[in-house]
Predict the structure.
Amino acid sequence: MNLINRELSWLSFNERVLQEAMDPTVPLTERMRFLGIYSNNLDEFFRVRVANLKRIIEVKNDKVLGYKGTAEELYVEIRKVVMRQQQLFETAYADIKDAFQKDGIQLIDENGCTSAELNELNHFFHDKLKHIIFPILLDKKRPLPKLRDYAIYLGIKIQTRTKVRYALIQIPTEYSRFYILQKEQRTKVILVDDIIRLHLREIFALLHVQHIEAFTFKFTRDAELDLDDDLSLSFFEKIEKSLKQRKKGLPVRFVYDEQMPSDLLDFILQQIQLKKGVNTIPGGRYHNFKDFMRFPDFGNPAYRFAKQDPVAHPELLNCKSLIAKIIQKDILLHFPYQQFDHVVDLLREASLDAKVKEIKINIYRVAKNSEVMNALLACIFNGKQVTVVFELQARFDEENNLWWSNRLKEFGANVIYGLQNLKVHSKLLQIRRISDGKTQYITYIGTGNFNEATATVYTDLGLLTADKDISLEVSRVFGMLENNLERHTFRNLLVSPFNTRRKLMALIDNEIKFAKAKKPAHIQLKINNLTDIKLIEKLYAASKAGVQIELIIRGICCLKPGVKGLSENITAISIVDRYLEHARFLICANNGQPTYYISSADWMERNLDQRIEVGTLIKDPAIQQQINLIFDYQWRGSVKARSISADYKNAYSKRNLPPFHAQQELFNHYKIASEEITQ
């Protein structure tokens, strides 16, 4: 079998995240944060991918790509992998707790408090928690209330004088889950879960409790949006309706404290109609570790990554007019090393520029308090025509996009919604000016979202250009979205689902041709996910022809690198570090005249055939050299790079290289470049 299974490859990626939590060189609070990221990732995996696998099993339990067995057997295998990772997770958590304790910070439960601390927690409970906790008694006659899959619950077993009762408490989210007890040089941390445990007898005092204990659990629902076929509903209304239905999706995973008594466990599972076994995963005392993404640092900078403020792009530092500078030359922004503020500043300048007549942008995900959206409102208030293409099906950001689309529409923007069967995932911004009677375009094409919050942790590229040919083609993309996908020819752009696949195939074929002619042939690719079978087969063909292929793939990789006679000329690595690698670009050697593209698209069937994605040719030689440098730094990275292989071992990729921390070195490079301009 020449493919790695997609789901198992994703679990392997998430284990790389877990490795960061296990790495003693990572600061302690950051290690807790990686536990939270791992947990949050796994929640989404079950809500989306495992839920989809269950639907496949119900319809037709066939064999699945990259796996020797059936869909149901893969489902069992996934559970085995998750259970093994759960043990690593618990070990990592214990190690982090021990390391904190050596520093005088103790993570305690309800049994580790002094009388003075109990008194303090008692005050906190009565002042803050008591009135936001709503215990629910359970019995077979009364149906279990609808449980939220973002929540965490305490399943409670109560022994009274006459019988056993069961109850439920949802852990409140109004306050931090971590309560800090501070006295002189001693610091203790207790979770809200345990503060509630301390007061269980008081909460259930009316039941004449003889013995009471509580056990954490959570569960995950199918998150797929089921869009209504009612023709009388607008697309906007269908999204709103399906979001409400998502909250009632079928459970796909139940995670619980393995110490939970079997009678309580059986009762809860019966109530939510799940069977013990494949759907259930025993774990430790605490769950919903996504909350640990906000674990405190106790005011100690040593517990966090060293502060690295993004720097200004050298060409835009103290620049009076970004528009004038972009008309003069192309600029490539690299986040989070360089400031995302440049994009917001460009919009603000456009709002005040009398020559600017129109702004168009397409939105996939934005921050809740979005500076980009507020800058667009400023453009509207200053009389500019603003068109916003909103993708309402950006998973788990649908409600935020609905809210912003309503707000922009209310103030006069022309709001267009993405198509029901074709997500708009491109990252485009275009400003149209009239100068001396001529039309000018300022165009932005990016690999990541217009989201200033994620731009501080996601690595992405964004091209700012006034190139006439590229800008006219981007204008055609917007026209296509406004006019029901009228077809166009694109020479500079990769536009899915129209020409991206064809152009990528042609670029690889070109390298194959040079290799067969005994000329140097080389492909360098950086993306998030590689799952498309046709492109994988084409890369295998290129390897067999002698093309040297270097892949940097953060997440899923279904290609098997380094297999003799198949992919021996392909090497693949994955970088997981403090920043989430998200940029996508391609370099083809092209017989000494390299071709460069950046893109919003991963090499997945959905991105190539079922979404609007846009990539662009990079023409400027200086920017081409910048992309070379980015790839070179990351390829030399020997500190946070792992080798991708079919055995899922995630071995650190030394490749006989000296220690080189790619992300840190890139930050140093950009910082020095910015400082040289100011000197």
The domain at 322-488 is CATH 3.30.870.10 (Endonuclease; Chain A). The two ends are 58 Å apart (CA to CA).
